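Researcher: I need the complex structure. Ligand is magnesium ion. Inputs:
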Amino acid sequence: MRSIIEKTFNERFGGEGTMYASAGRINLIGEHTDYNGGFVFPGAIDKVIMADMRPNGTGRVRVFSIDIDDYAEFGLNEADAPSQSWARYIFGVCREIIKRGGKVEGFDAVFAGNVPLGAGLSSSAALESCFAFALNDMFNGGKIAKFELALIGQSTEHNYCGVNCGIMDQFASVFGKKDNLIRLDCRSLEYEYFPFHHEGYQLVLVDSAVKHELKDSPYNRRRQSCERVAARLGVETLRDATMEMLDAAKADISAEDYSRAKFVIEEKQRVLDVCDALIAGDYDTVGQKMYETHRGLSKDYEVSCEELDFLNDIARECGVTGSRIMGGGFGGCTINLVKDELADSFIATATERFEKAYGHKPKIYPVVISDGARKI
Ligand code: ADP
Ligand code: MG
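Model: Output:
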């Protein structure tokens, strides 16, 4: 990928730029916890966006996307937004840096990536953090703090791409470190690295390639349940609730709200348990917690779907150490912690049986926990 980017840069702009990269991400555990003030546990992966960049001494940005085979050129004022949606991620990053008092001048860029788009690995965060990191390095002497770079990516999604996302994706993409997962406390925004030396194990994503569009707004309804229970328990978010508190108030809470809150309270604890297990090198417990999360998402939070439960069942039958839905639910991927010697047979079995049941093959993405945004 690097050489084709360099070649294209040279053909379009002449000479060479500086190469930057950033990564997509997985989340090992900690689902639907962010808006409840709990923990998430992401890591950057070896699927990246790479961009060759160089200031061009003008007030204009000229950028070519190899994957989309499209060119965009735009100025740096609010009125200069490009029409192409892919270019708006880059324009947004420029604007968000400028709005925060940072410096961005014209530059030339050629970029490409191998983070699958829309598969739940956050290609958009990889794109934003790659450019945010690069513009910080090229024009701001690296002075913009890393957390600010993540916030710049998040604000880009909110203000220029119409996606009202949380901070996890951009955070993981900016802060990602090889062989480490990062526990982010979504209430205090404090974070801690935990070593993920999974010798003997692989992480394999199985993408069902289905996305169920639901008529009512299931995410809002889940959020409302959580807020109602938190209010009933007298806490700001479910982060501060315990199962004892929930059970004591059970009579006043609807069965549905009870199940939702139970999942969130248990999931908070599971993230902490997984961190302890990783420190102890106990990958069996890590995997068991992943299965518990899946069951909770499926039975209590009710955000699974037939295809994802099917993939989870296959994982269990194949002896996979841990497996769960990754992401919001109703489609997308499962993340699987698989012993090396079982990986090939699991992938073959999941592919064959899923295709037989649903008429198309799932997409398989083995991933390795790797560095996030960087100069390369
Ligand atoms: P994801 O879950 O992968 O983040 P999104 O819909 O949020 O999916 O973001 C995908 C969008 O990001 C693409 O439609 C495109 O605009 C942009 N994008 C991601 N990767 C690339 C790439 N390699 N080249 C060009 N644009 C990309
Ligand atoms: Mg995205």
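Model: Summary of the prediction. The mean pLDDT is 96.
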